[in-house]
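User: Structure with adenosine-5'-diphosphate, tokens only please.
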Amino acid sequence: DKGLAVFTSGGDSQGMNAAVRACVRMAIYVGCKAYFIREGYQGMVDGGDCIQEATWASVSSIIHRGGTIIGSARCQDFRERAGRLKAANNLVQRGITNLVVIGGDGSLTGANLFRQEWSSLLDELEKNNTITSEQKNKYNVLHIVGLVGSIDNDFCGTDMTIGTDTALHRIIEAIDAIASTAYSHQRTFIMEVMGRHCGYLAISAAIATEADFMFIPEEPVPVNWQDALCTKLAQERSAGQRLNIVIVAEGACDREGNPISAEDVRKVIDARLKHDARITVLGHVQRGGNPSAFDRVLACRMGAEATLALMEATPDSVPVVISLDGNQTVRVPLMECVERTQAVAKAMKEHRWADAVKLRGRS
Ligand code: ADP
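Assistant:
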């Protein structure tokens, strides 16, 4: 009679539904009562209809849908102990002591804190007679497992995060579409793609679309990047190429840390080369649309493994995230990955790019 709840939190990504479906179905398969928590931590704090029992059929026909059908949110209340106390009560009242959190490093940090505080939250609930001592004893350990939904592939400890592959498909579709019109009019297109700390989308898109130049956060260009850019673009044109594609990741900058925007790049091309240069900011298109086959399968594997990890957890086991290592889904310590991810973000902010790349390791 174990209760397991799944929720999505923070920024959405394609494939989250497939993960929710796999968690729920595996939970039912192994004899758990499965629940959805709608709107992330907000739903956990608010309780009521936000926490609903999930059935086998309730997760049918969602695997192909983008976004998250159970909603995601950012939640200030959960950052305060008072909010977490309400959340704990809502879970205990339903007998839920297993959580699958699907989100980014923030959501995973919150879950870890909640787990650490759990027994003191239950003590407090018992003291003010919100729960009985039987409930406190029965539900005294909270198990959590994390799955990483992020289109940027910016999480340490996994080769791929859920949503990245689909985002890359969206980018490539958009660039292919633009390339055909650019070809007709001999234009230069500057594409801004997501990735504040991580150039994975920009690099992969640049390779896959034969881009001429790219700007990524991890490898800042020299301060006189304008010369290299113009030389390269002019070279391609004189070799007979009718269009140029330049990809700029959101977090791009030069070696002194000055941000480089798509508009900065356009101005240089316009002034020096007199190309007809246009900007396309892909924005939320990258988060949209149906998940790719890869993301669906990845999320299914990770979701099923998350439920199994919860079933096997003991009171002293370390919380894990399910990650992709080579082609294996494996369990890795959650806080180690979160801390490394946050250290990478800090190093990037402080312009210690080489440190950031080293810290990130494989991916
Ligand atoms: P992401 O999970 O995508 O990194 P956020 O950092 O915005 O996104 O976190 C999502 C939610 O997780 C927050 O709105 C908050 O409710 C919860 N959260 C994040 N960090 C903490 C924390 N240190 N303590 C408690 N809750 C947190």
